[in-house]
Amino acid sequence: VFGAGGGTSSYQEVRDADLIVLWGSNAREAHPIFFHHVLKAVKRGAKLIVVDPRRTPSAQWADLWLGLDVGTDIPLANAIGREIIHAGLVNEEFVARATADFDAYRESVEPWTLAEGERVTGIPADAIREVAHAYAQADKAQICWTLGITEHHNAVDNVFALIDLALLTGHVGRYGSGLNPLRGQNNVQGGGDMGAIPNKLPGFQEIEDDTIRARFDKAWDTTIPPKRGLHLTQMFEAMEHGKLKALYVIGENPAQSEADQVRALKLLKGLDMLIVQDLFLTKTAQLADVVLPGCAGWCESEGTVTSSERRVQRVRKALDPPGDARDDIEIVYELGRRLGHDLGSTRAEDVWNELRTLSPMHAGMSYSRLEEMGGIHWPCWDESHPGDLFLHARLWEPEVTDRAHFQPVHHSPPVDVLDDDFPIRLTTGRRLESFNTGVQTGGYSSPLHRNGAALQLAPEDGARYGVRDGGRVRVVSRRGAVEAPVRYDTTLRPGLAFMNLHFPDEIETNILTIDATDPKSGTAEFKATAIRVEPL
Amino acid sequence: VDLKLLEAEPTDAERTAIDAVAGAPETNGGRVGRARRDGRQLLLPALRAAQRRVGFVSEGALGYASRRLSVPPADAYGVASFYALLALEERPADVLHVCTDIACRLAGAEVPAGAHASPCLGLCERAPASLRTIAGEKPREIQLPESGPPLPQAGESDLRLLRRIAAGVDPTSLDAYRAHGGYTALARARELGPEAVVQTIADSKLLGRGGAAFPTGTKWEAVARQPAQPHYLVCNADESEPGTFKDRILMESDPFALLEAMTIAAFATGCAHGFIYVRAEYPLAHERLENAMTQLRAAGLLGGDFDVELRIGAGAYVCGEETALFQSIEGYRGEPRNKPPFPVEVGLFGKPTVVNNVETLANVPEIIRGDARETRLFCLSGHVGRPGLYEVELGMTLRELLERAETRQPKAVLLGGAAGTFLRPDQLDLPLTFEGARDAGTTLGSGVVMVFDESADLVDAVLRIAEFFRDESCGQCVPCRVGTKRQEEALHRLAAGRGEGNEIALLADLEQVMRDASICGLGQTAASAVGSAIRNLGVLAS
Q1: Which DSSP string corresponds to B361-372?
Q2: Is the CA virtual torsion A371, A372, A376, A380 positive or negative?
Q3: What average pLDDT does the structure give for chain A?
Q4: B31 and A122 in contact by Cβ < 8 A?
Q5: Cβ of A127 and B35 within 8 Å?
Q6: What is the DSSP code (8-state) at residue A177?
Q7: Count of CA atoms in the C-beta half-sphere (13 A) of B394
Q8: What three-state secondary structure class fits A483?
Q9: Across residues B297-317, what is the average pLDDT?
């Protein structure tokens, strides 16, 4: 919609906001540092609204928690949008001057009355109305989301539904109001910035744009393939069709993190060549033909990271990596050399300065400025530019040339439907003390790991299916089954179950999940699996 | 790492007790939930409720209260462990707390097996005293002995603050209170209007009776003109100064007067909400105040534009310090705040706050009604013929007061409590006024007059005072935390004859440092009585 992939606001603005909506985000556990900024706002008197099927620890902090049915984010957003329109709370001037396609949007949300919203999402109509009015009438409002929005088969549509709300109310492009996907690692944003996505070159420049590609071709003295590459899910499809035969995995553990794990393992094992570059001998690395030991970004290498607020910051080397582990730049450059390409100096600052000549939004970020200013928010066009605290200020200029388009979206329920055989909706997520497949966190003993490897179930469902707290069950989905202990969890309503993915050695949660994937983002629907439980 | 994981669940009894404070919980399966932003301030009442139900604060109860009130469990543990009367380990439902403080020691207090020693219970006129707490479905707290000697001035007709008590007016009846002039002052105040009421109090030169003697009118004026809203009124009834029991008797025997006074203060300073913070050791006062509030609400005299909430402490001397008291009401550890800002600007919940002691407020209706006499209350205990509460008119000397109480040949008098001063028999001719005490190098403090005759063990009294401050120091600031400990150690060395020759100088240094550098009055006065015992009485001096 806006042309760049990053959160629009800075943390400072989150602290200063009047209303913060965490939608599909359990930031208190998954983004604890960001949640501190939220708490500062709350302590100041800001309102916090959390939209999440579970009453997560974040939701327990909320002035208002909405426990919607899994996968009904679009109906909820559309009902909110319709209510804003019908209550006369649209920011008419902003919509007229800075946006396009409002009529199509209005038409698309018209069926989503509060009553219809309640019927589909499970949220009482008056609570939907309350959110609509609070959001539209707030002076400074933030919508922040994470995987609860994006780990669905219609992830991009979910995001569009939230963006539409911001366009409707003018809550974007000005201080304190914005739209922010929260990033799960300190440098997820940086990976995207550097072009580690199939359709972009560094600085979010289109790979399929001939002029842009020509500039890179010239600088790198090579010819870049003119078409975008494959995203992760497409890669697995290509493996399935025998079109992809070699895979180079850096810092990922797809053998355990992919949905429908049985299939993922089969495909990885069928490759002609698998190279894994990682800190640890992960399950994926154990399958590899070659393992290249890399080093820890935060203490064994020089470089930069980019946080969710687009702030590029320096990281510095404090330790030499152990054993034969080598700096990641060196590994990649050495590989290049062996393949007959001299990629140049492996000094992190030299690589960075090369980037600055190619990515206009990083042009002004010299290492010395990054150090002086304690990091800079992109874009930073030249060495006199301070960086932008928030994005899209252009939408508030008197003449908006590049308008933001409303994206009408329609409800599409989770692919893995509930029925009599699979009556329980399983959703997945993170815990405070663990990270993803546990490669970095599983090796530490922590009392907080207790009860991590379990199926969490509402006590009512326990009674209904004859499973006691602490008992063991077989959890069955349409794709597979795992055995797990049951832990009662009163933050779940009947019909909703929860598992995390941190302890794959004990419970391979992703044997159950579905790989129904969003065609635009390539993300699988980890958040919505249909299961049943069978007491053992 | 000592990680406290509160996975323990409360018992049904604990759950019910906490829910009675926190409100009914939302049911599971809900679609909408709301965090409590006001939960924190209910933490102490919730913990107290759990303990009164089962006798201690279990891990399950602590975790459940945290969950219900949106307070992190570690934080709640910090609060629970701050208060002496909250038990975090299981113990019998029926517990006897035996006072071992100065007045009760003089009366030969002994702690039987299984009982707990307690600092001053505010029952000094009936020493030795104790408090029995019985947890259960119908929890009870009983002050022992259940009654004290009659009011020494019973029957006297020209009393001011003790008028109704001396006349035996029923403290449980609003009608009786009204029949004896009750609520005429409020009517008069409403005729005058808020500004004139503040002016009248300022003109009366009423000084605070909690110990610090700050002009009440100045406080009221400052709060009345604060633009920040809301304004709060707090009655400091956490009377914990060893030897003090005047506020207890006022609350037990004339509760309506306190509530009328608070209503006038609130009217004058623009407060819609008032708190009475009473120490936990005063169960009869709680009962009498609750009863009075219920009757006043039924009569429409409370609950309209002004209402009062009763908050009960949990055993912490320092909570009598006004900012520590705010912290306690707000649900935090009772650690005093730095001043400035002063409560008139940033007080309870960060808002402008009038905070007055019970006796101070008791003067308000009298002043508004036009009784211009100046009287003060004194708590006589120890070796006196007629211990109890005395109302004294301006001009009387300490010696005259002692004679009225039938005291014979004191060896020493402790004036002002543990934070006050020891006086010699030849120092007793000072007039009982703020200025008179100041000129004599002492303080009236909270009106404690504790008498020690020839039989008294003054070394024991001094050691007890040092122990008291070491125990009651909240530990927040170094001068007090370390100073009270070093003071006690030095005194013990002297008492055991193991002095190293520098103790007297060390004690004087500690006194100076604590006075200069402690955050609050507790540390600032923690060496006052000890120092005076050494200087005035020569206790442990050689």
Answers
A1: HHHHHHHHHT--
A2: negative
A3: 93
A4: yes
A5: no
A6: B
A7: 6
A8: strand
A9: 97
